[in-house]
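Protein: Aromatic hydrocarbon degradation protein
Species: Epilithonimonas hispanica
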Amino acid sequence: MRKILVSMALAAGMMAYAGGFRVSLQGVKQLAMAHTSAHAEDASVAFFNPAGISFIPAKLSVAAGGFGVSDKITYQNTSTLQQTETDNPLGTPIYAAIAYKVMDNVSVGFSFSTPFGSTIEWPSDWEGKEIVQKLELKSYFFQPMISVKLAPWASFGASYIYVKGKVDWTKALTQYGGQLNLLDDTATGHGFGFGFYFQPNNNLDVSVAYRSPVDMKAKEGKATFTVPSSLLSNFNGGSDNFKATLPLVDEYTIGVTYKVTPKWLISADYNYHGWERYSKLTLDFSTVAAGNQPNDPTVSVSPKNFKNTSSVRIGTQYAFNDMIFGRLGWYYDQSPYADKDFIPEIPSFDNYVITGGVGFKFNKLGVDLSGAYAMPKSRTFNNPNLSFAGQAKADVFFFGLGLSYNAF
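Structure follows.
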């Protein structure tokens, strides 16, 4: 069962990615400006920094939006030059937020978002079928929050974070003529966030925020082995349970927005992600001996070798008039692992992204459109843990529609 335990350990890594794989799509307006955070015009600031809701120019504000993510990964065997492409469905991250000013110096809010997750689908008979055929990841973040103004120009905010996650992962068991599916849709985790927001004058916004790590606990995962009936006794009749604690990384953000003229503003962000929490991942099966630990063959431990990463973001907005706004941006994200640790379940690349969009304001209602084109850096890799090597590249495009309403 050696090949099974290696792949299962990698599946645990994938489940961690269900919360830890950061997808910067939590505000349509923000995405158009490179997903920068120091914008307190409406309730969408709630996800980025709970302190920012104190500076929303309305007592009650709501915001919601959704995105489409079109991505294609191409793998090439460098020996045969044969190429394989994914057939991924359109991803649809969403978000919603509300903020209410209880008193002049106290505001409360709530943010719902899906910041981590994706679906990747390779052909069922491709070269890496024993690693992954299809993987669906979902996460749901629920964040109630409170913000207090410490001074007319400064606020502090904090949020509680509750997370629900799901993984549905299928791979081939070629040596047994079958498949393995790992499913868990009850994983949960808890965390917190806090931040400071400053508006020293009408031309400058400064946002400093922290989001804690979250340990997603999968307690009732189900492993299904589809193998010939003659082998079922080796796999507990074809099904087993598993447990895992899946770490999601913490995030530090510093953002600045400066209004150069009454019509033109420039924003910049720096993000730091603590990916080194992925030193190892452990998967604990109830009965099937698919592990790699001498003292307990039902436990599989896999080193991950992830590293901390950072991203840099620059965006701008120009108001053509009181109703129409144009936006542009650029940002750079680092991959959390080296070429030798490349995994086709979640292909990751150093990524350059160009963003843009337009916004329309109809009195209290805002309508925003955005799009982004990613230019991931291709990779040549050789992962010795998987005995899997080759080249990989990606094509990714985002688009989004958002609404906001500052009621009164």
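Remarks: The longest strand covers residues 178-201.
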